[in-house]
Amino acid sequence: MGLFDWFARRPSLAEGLETWKSTPGAVLLDVRTPEEYRAGHIPGAQNLPLNRLSAASAPAGVPLFVYCHSGARSAQARRILEGAGRTVTDLGGLMGYRGPLES
Q1: In sequence order, what are the residues at sequence separation of 6 or more whose Cβ sits closer than 8 angstroms to the Cβ of residue 65?
Q2: Which residues of the chain have pLDDT under 50?
Q3: Residue 87 is part of which domain span?
Q4: Cα separation, 42 vs 8, whole angstroms
Q5: I want to staple 91 with a disulfide (CB 3.0 to 4.6 A). Which of 16, 31, 41, 52 is the partner?
């Protein structure tokens, strides 16, 4: 898989959030640190830092949508969670996000 294939597989954050909102039972995960999460996160997101993903206990079959700050940790989270048999959409990072945040 080439570099451009990786970019082509990821929806924009705005598109991904619309899909998350319209997917019954889906969970939005912010995989940043608790400090980053408290500083501002997408409304409705749950914080599950990347270093705690192995302890994640989301029920199988629940669609997961993950994001971070730049997209690097969300890509790692996708690999970890898919390896555990989860259905995951990587939304990338908040860097270009212009929507509301809550703290």
Answers
A1: 16, 17, 19, 20, 23, 26, 27, 28, 29, 88, 89, 91
A2: 1, 4-6, 8
A3: 3-93
A4: 23
A5: 16
- Identify the active-site residue in 68, 77, 91, 94: 68
Rounded CA-CA distance 25/27 in Å is 7
Q: How many domains does the chain have?
A: 1
Q: List the structure tokens of 78.
A: 């996708």
**Is 40 contained in some domain?**
yes
Query: Domain of 7: which CATH number?
Result: 3.40.250.10
Active site residue 51: no
Map tokens 């898919």 to a residue: 82
Q: Report the pLDDT value the prediction gives residue 53, as an integer from 0 to 100.
A: 86
List the one residue out of 86, 6, 97, 7 whose CA is nearest residue 48: 86
**Two structure tokens written together for 19:** 């899909």
